[in-house]
């Protein structure tokens, strides 16, 4: 199953053409602030109970690409960077759990004195969503000045 060995070698850089490590194809950032309409124009009640704002900042994005590497240098050569394993299956098949979110069985330690066949940026890391909420209160000091 090791036919058509695409070797990753430091002198043959066109074999490493792939996605950039900072490639994030989907990203959304949402922010909003809403002034709550409670206790407006009620004198001292406005000063004590009014002036509240609710805010949200949310970020959603897909994960960055990454390269699977091996810790063992079996090439008997000085490596120009991290060595990659052999790709023997579909790395995206199966998995999906926190402990194993890609198919680790799709990779194999390369044979002695050979470079691995796994391409650069073969997988994409998990995306993430972050949502932050805030609750703010304005305190009026005088006609010109206020603090939050």
Give the quaternary arrangement of the chains.
Answer: single chain
What is the rounded distance between the termini? 66 Å
Number of strands: 9
Topology pattern, helix = H, strand = E: EHEEEEEEEE
Strand composition percent: 25-35%
Number of domains: 2
Largest sheet, in brief, is: 3 strands, antiparallel
How many separate helices? 1
* Average residue pLDDT: 82
Write out the strand line-up for the largest beta sheet, numbering strands in chain order. 1-2-7
Principal-axes geometry comes out as: rod-shaped
Structural class, from secondary structure content? Answer: mainly beta
- As a whole number of angstroms, the C-alpha radius of gyration is 27 Å
Helix content: under 10%
Q: Low-confidence parts, pLDDT < 50 over ≥5 residues?
A: 1-8
Please describe the topology of this protein.
Blueprint: E1 27-35, H1 44-49, E2 52-61, E3 65-66, E4 86-87, E5 107-108, E6 123-124, E7 128-137, E8 139-140, E9 146-147
Antiparallel strand pairs: 1-2, 2-7, 3-6, 4-5, 8-9
């Amino acid at each position: 199953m090791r036919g058509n060995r695409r070797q990753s070698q430091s002198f043959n850089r066109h074999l490493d053409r792939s996605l950039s490590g900072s490639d994030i194809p989907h990203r959304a950032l949402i922010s909003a602030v809403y002034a709550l309409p409670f206790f407006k124009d009620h004198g001292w009640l406005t000063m004590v109970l009014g002036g509240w704002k609710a805010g949200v900042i949310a970020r959603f994005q897909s994960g960055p690409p990454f390269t699977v590497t091996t810790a063992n240098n079996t090439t008997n050569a000085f490596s120009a960077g991290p060595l990659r394993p052999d790709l023997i299956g579909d790395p995206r098949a199966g998995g999906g759990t926190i402990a194993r979110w890609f198919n680790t069985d799709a990779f194999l330690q390369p044979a002695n004195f050979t470079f691995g066949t796994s391409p650069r940026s073969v997988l994409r890391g998990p995306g993430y969503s972050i949502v932050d909420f805030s609750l703010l209160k304005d305190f009026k000091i005088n006609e010109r000045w206020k603090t939050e």
